[in-house]
Amino acid sequence: MAIQAKKTPSSPSIWTWLSITFLWGTVFFGTSVLTLRISSNWLEQGFFNPAWPEIYSVYAIYFFLLLFLALAAMMIKRKQDPWGEKQTRRQQEVLAGKREQVFVSFAASIVTSFSFTVLTALVFQFSSVFVRMTVELAVPVVLMAAVLNVSAGLAASLLAGLVIFVLKKLWG
Questions:
Q1: What is the 3-state secondary structure (H, E, C) of 87-132?
Q2: What's the number of domains the chain is made of?
Q3: Domain that holds residue 105
Q4: Cβ atoms within 10 A of the Cβ of 93, count?
């Protein structure tokens, strides 16, 4: 069974948007919490040491933000590419070996991992009032955490590329 991209363009379903947004949003939430904690300790600025119950409480708020982001991104993408032609062409080029060979969406993984760290920091700062926890995140701490989190984005991109490579070898 060969791996094939869609032959006829179609826009991804709402469930695709939600599943991908929640998958990567959750992964980068976790890595962001880790890098924010590390950065706060390394730079000895501010305070960021949430306990597990606090992390879960903040994620409950973050969940609704991810839902909003998924729906907003879907609407914007459908305005730009209503029939999914660009997406289908990109999938076909990747599987044909004309695009990314090792990393999948290299630039997007950098931007996404960096952005989700900033977003996570903002949600923790905002949520600290409701969750009753102490969070003091200085800008240098957030920026350092975001740069550190880029390694998680690159690792995810590399992992996705390796999965595609292995699947192409097995079934292609």
A1: HHHHHHHHHCCCCCCCCCCHHHHHHHHHHHHHHHHHHHHHHHHHHC
A2: 1
A3: 14-88+99-171
A4: 13
Distance between CA atoms of 106 and 154, rounded to whole angstroms? 7
User: Whole-model pTM?
Assistant: 0.83
Instruction: Return d(Cα 66, Cα 155) in angstroms, integer.
Output: 22
In angstroms, the first-to-last Cα distance of the chain is 7
For residue 2, is it within any domain?
A: no
pLDDT in tens, 65-107: 999 999 999 999 889 988 878 877 877 776 666 665 566 677 8
Nearest CA to 101 among 109, 93, 89?
Answer: 93
Q: Please state which of the ranges 40-54, 59-73, 81-95, 105-119 shows the lowest mean pLDDT.
A: 81-95
The answer to whether residue 7 is domain-embedded is no
pLDDT averaged over every residue in the chain: 87
Tracing tokens 């097995």 back to the chain, one arrives at 170
